[in-house]
Amino acid sequence: MQDKQNSLTIQMYLKTLYGVNVYRANLLAQKIGSSYNTKYKDLPDYKKDLLSQTLSHVRKQHPGLDADLKLHIKNTIYNLSEIQTTRGIKHRKGYPTRGQRTRSNAQTSKRLKIL
Predict the structure, then answer these.
(1) What pTM does this model have?
(2) Most distant CA pair in the chain: distance in Å?
C-alpha cells in the first residue's frame, strides 16, 4: 500500500483523504510550492513535512476532513432524526432526503430501509 501511495501524484494522494476534492488538493499543492502533477515520492522531505503541517493547520481551521467530517455528518443526521424534522424522518426510513421522487423511483432505498 505504501508503494502505491508513493507512486501517486500529489493531487491523487491528497484525494485519498475523505473530504478533499480536486480543487482543495490543487490549493494545498500550491501552498507548499509544488505542481499538483509532481509525484509524492519525488517530493523532498521538507516539502512532505510542510504538506503535513499544512494539512494539520487546515484541519484546525475547518474540521471538515477525514474522520472529523464523517463524525460531523453522522451527528447532523442523528440530530435531525432526534428533533423529528422531515429530513430526519426520511433518513430514518431510508427514503431520499433531497426531494427526489419516491413513487416510481427509489425502490432500492425504500426496500433496504437504511438506518
Answers:
(1) 0.61
(2) 57
